[in-house]
Amino acid sequence: MEFTMSIKNLAAVAATSVLLMFSGILSAVELKLLRYGPAGEEKPGLIDSQGRIRDLSSHIDDIGPATLSDAALEQIAQIPLAELPLVQGNPRIGVPVTGTGKIIAIGFNYVNHAAEMAVELPSEPLVFMKATSALTGPFDNVIQPRNALKLDYESELVVVIGRRAQYLTEEEVFDYIAGYTVGHDVSERAFQRERGGQFTKGKSADTFAPVGPYLVTRDHIDDVQNLSIWSEVNGEMRQQGNTTDMVFGVKEIVSHLSQFMTLYPGDLIFTGTPAGVGDGMVPPQYLQPGDVVRVGVEGLDFQRQVIVAPR
Predict the structure, then answer these.
(1) CATH match of 103-308 with 3.90.850.10
(2) What is the DSSP letter of 87?
């Protein structure tokens, strides 16, 4: 299924889309997109001004690479709310974007986190990957891997790429970002540091990449470098940071990555975590089955997971 509407005059659409909640039509800057339903059967939706889920499935197949460009998002914004049925009940919320080709993450990217981990500040972004098979919904359980000893949490701002990007200057970056979401970079520190010294295998177990609940379009965030970011475990606040403390900001990260790999629509970039992780506490406090973790970013809402024993 393709979009059921056509854009005859994109300039006119763009001008119209800057209006906020006018005549029952959403503005692109107000879009909060999500995917809801059982795992593997999610439908596309959006959040209206009253916080209710509206179904988009009669207009688009899904929220993925084909729906992340500015033109596509503007087209979604022009759909009258009356055409979007309200979703009843409390459905499961999935990852807000499908079709992700890669998950890229940045290590030690907050000054205070690097300090608590006793590492020097990186001179350029420290890059690693998380397996896409780690993706899971923002309220799904996190499964402790077999033989895990040091399970940890990391609250992160996640960038969602909206256009194919290669060799970007920092000034171009925001034109290539569809929006932002919350990410939980679940980590197994023993796998990460004591099993060959490679980040990726300590970051990639199933359920180690909860993402969501929403994809918030970039224009909805006034200043991505001034957002509070936090986590709590069993009701105890652990991380309380702000994206102002990033060593490398969003534009530096995306520009840097685009020099080494082509970024595609739907790619996700985890941008680092502030101080307060379990591994940095004295003594360390690692997650155990039964623990409840919440992570959140200002303007993007929060996630909640229960840690469960290995299968």
Answers:
(1) yes
(2) P
